[in-house]
From TrEMBL:
Reported function: Catalyzes the formation of 6,7-dimethyl-8-ribityllumazine by condensation of 5-amino-6-(D-ribitylamino)uracil with 3,4-dihydroxy-2-butanone 4-phosphate. This is the penultimate step in the biosynthesis of riboflavin.
Species per Swiss-Prot/TrEMBL record: Clonostachys chloroleuca
E.C. designation(s): 2.5.1.78
EC main group: transferase
Name the UniProt record assigns to this protein: 6,7-dimethyl-8-ribityllumazine synthase
GO biological-process terms attached to the record: riboflavin biosynthetic process
InterPro entries per UniProt: LS, LS/RS, LS/RS_sf
Gene Ontology annotations for the cellular component aspect, listed alphabetically: mitochondrial intermembrane space; riboflavin synthase complex
Keywords: Riboflavin biosynthesis, Transferase
A Pfam family of this chain: DMRL_synthase
Length: 196
């Protein structure tokens, strides 16, 4: 039998923290994708309290939103000096460098073991579909390699709404790709912990 996706493996996700960061464009497709990802995380043993869902306006914003989601989750007042007492301000966070981010995310105490970035780009609805898709996927790869935290690519690039629905398993048709992204996050999160 020809298998389109990766052959299934079981990984224990009970020790993982995973973020799902999704765009809000095309929300009727986004919702089932996020639900599918979450379902697979829970099925692998990831605790509900260790799944954090955040959003940003569109796919273009996903790389910065994913990067800052890591960052905010990792930072404590002692790790990045604040100008004031208590938690670091937004200015402190924005001023933090990539090397701060890298050293923080390489520590075993980093709270997210993987992040799933979810967006839906429909060609018929955007003149600059290719620009947004290209920039978003390159940005996500950069975040992943700069931080050492696996970023699962959950961006659907489709020609029309019908294709989008089929790839989100809407109306019982097609296959919900969000499920694959949830499984990939568990596998890569476990491997990230093994790699140290
Ligand atoms: C502007 C735009 C368009 C036309 N289409 C989409 C889309 O299909 N999917 C998506 O996630 N985002 C879209 N956007 C919004 C951009 O990603 C971005 O949010 C805005 O250009 C503001 O920076």
């Amino acid at each position: 039998m020809y298998l389109k996706g990766p052959s299934p493996q079981h990984h224990d996700g009970s020790g993982l923290r995973v973020a799902i960061v999704h765009a809000r464009w095309n929300e009727t497709i986004i919702e089932p994708l996020v639900a599918g990802a979450k379902e697979k995380l829970l099925a692998a043993g990831v605790k509900e309290s260790n799944i954090v869902v955040q959003s940003c306006p569109g796919s273009w914003e996903l790389p910065i939103a994913v990067q800052r989601a890591f960052f905010l989750s990792l930072i404590s007042a002692s790790q990045i000096q604040s100008n004031t007492t208590g938690a670091p301000s937004a200015t402190d966070l924005l001023a933090a460098s990539t090397s701060d981010l890298t050293s923080l995310t390489n520590s075993s105490s980093g709270p997210f073991d993987a992040v799933i970035a979810v967006g839906v780009l429909i060609k018929g609805e955007t003149m600059h579909f290719e620009y947004i898709a290209d920039a978003a996927v390159h940005g996500l790869m950069r975040v992943q390699l700069d931080t050492g935290i696996p970023v699962i690519l959950g961006i659907l690039t489709v020609l029309n709404e019908e294709q989008a629905k089929a790839r989100a398993g809407v109306d019982g048709k097609g296959h919900n790709h969000g499920e694959d992204w949830g499984s990939a996050a568990v596998e890569m999160g476990v491997k990230r912990q093994e790699w140290g």
